[in-house]
Amino acid sequence: MRSVQIAGRTIGPEEPPFVIAELSGNHSQNLSLALAMVEAAAKSGAHAIKLQTYTADSMTLDVQSSDFVINEKDSLWYGASLHSLYAKAATPYEWHEQLFKRAEELGMIAFSSPFDNDAVDFLDELNVPCFKIASFELNDLPLIAYAAGKGKPLIMSTGMASLRDIELAVECARDAGCDDIVLLKCTSTYPANPGNTNLATIPNMREAFGCQVGLSDHTGGIGVAVAAVAFGATVIEKHFVLDRNAGGVDAAFSLEPDEMHSLVTETERAWQGIGKVRYGGTHAEEAAKQYRRSIYVSEDIPAGEVLTAANLKIVRPAFGLAPRHWSTVLGKRANHDIRKGTPLKWEHMKP
């Protein structure tokens, strides 16, 4: 399976999962807050920050008809017009360079999701190392082709996409010259229910499209993301906020700094734990073998006495004969005096 290089970082099973902190609109259009988020993400150990590059006008139309109003009653943004929501959540273009520079100073990779061709050009001029295509844009093949043509890796969230939708997007990117593709399994509900996440899709997607696969996770907590690593996820993306109680358009399903730190730590532990198929214990377990059970003399046994369950016992440690020999040694006679606490050996018995 082809690994992907992003700004010198390998995305693949040979490296710990690549953890992305998605700032989204949780900065509430406050540059100082956005910079503080970048610094907190770095301190938490996140490997990258991601922005979203759009304006309200590049996302939708400023129209108040029902088509342009969120009408799902269980939505965090029920009743909001699309234009007003995107205007509230947008990251000003003039912030990008400063936020990217700060992230890089702190040792993180920084990039963004473009939502139109102008945004692709803008980000390309800022030398982003890759582009991220959001799940709702996976069907925007002209946008994918344009971004893919810039010669950078492409990360694409799949969201509600069908197998055919993903196939079209991957073919489009490859036809435009991009072979470094990472797909992110994603459930496009905000927040997402773990029961709708279907992590078992990850290895299937990897085999179907021959590329690295990760998870863009909108569930609460870190449990689903950690579990995704066991299914082969090599990238984990989670929305990030300094304080959920302080608000932010995506705060309800975003991680706070301590949680992001736990995510980085636990996904790496999960990755370390996968290993390979192995039986018989590892080298690290070698010393522990002495604490398994074996047959010991439990009472003093004079020469010639019969070995029985009254003078033998299966106990820890493992310096005597293995317990599988129990039925064989019972009934044999001691060929010399044997003291209590002696690990039983074949030489203690008459043939």
Automatic annotation (TrEMBL):
<protein>
    <submittedName>
        <fullName>Pseudaminic acid synthase</fullName>
        <ecNumber>2.5.1.97</ecNumber>
    </submittedName>
</protein>
<feature type="domain" description="AFP-like">
    <location>
        <begin position="294"/>
        <end position="351"/>
    </location>
</feature>
<dbReference type="InterPro" id="IPR006190">
    <property type="entry name" value="SAF_AFP_Neu5Ac"/>
</dbReference>
<dbReference type="InterPro" id="IPR013974">
    <property type="entry name" value="SAF"/>
</dbReference>
<dbReference type="GO" id="GO:0047444">
    <property type="term" value="F:N-acylneuraminate-9-phosphate synthase activity"/>
</dbReference>
<dbReference type="Pfam" id="PF03102">
    <property type="entry name" value="NeuB"/>
</dbReference>
<dbReference type="InterPro" id="IPR057736">
    <property type="entry name" value="SAF_PseI/NeuA/NeuB"/>
</dbReference>
<dbReference type="InterPro" id="IPR013785">
    <property type="entry name" value="Aldolase_TIM"/>
</dbReference>
<dbReference type="InterPro" id="IPR036732">
    <property type="entry name" value="AFP_Neu5c_C_sf"/>
</dbReference>
<dbReference type="InterPro" id="IPR020030">
    <property type="entry name" value="Pseudaminic_synth_PseI"/>
</dbReference>
<dbReference type="Pfam" id="PF08666">
    <property type="entry name" value="SAF"/>
</dbReference>
<keyword id="KW-0808">Transferase</keyword>
<dbReference type="GO" id="GO:0016051">
    <property type="term" value="P:carbohydrate biosynthetic process"/>
</dbReference>
<dbReference type="InterPro" id="IPR051690">
    <property type="entry name" value="PseI-like"/>
</dbReference>
<dbReference type="InterPro" id="IPR013132">
    <property type="entry name" value="PseI/NeuA/B-like_N"/>
</dbReference>
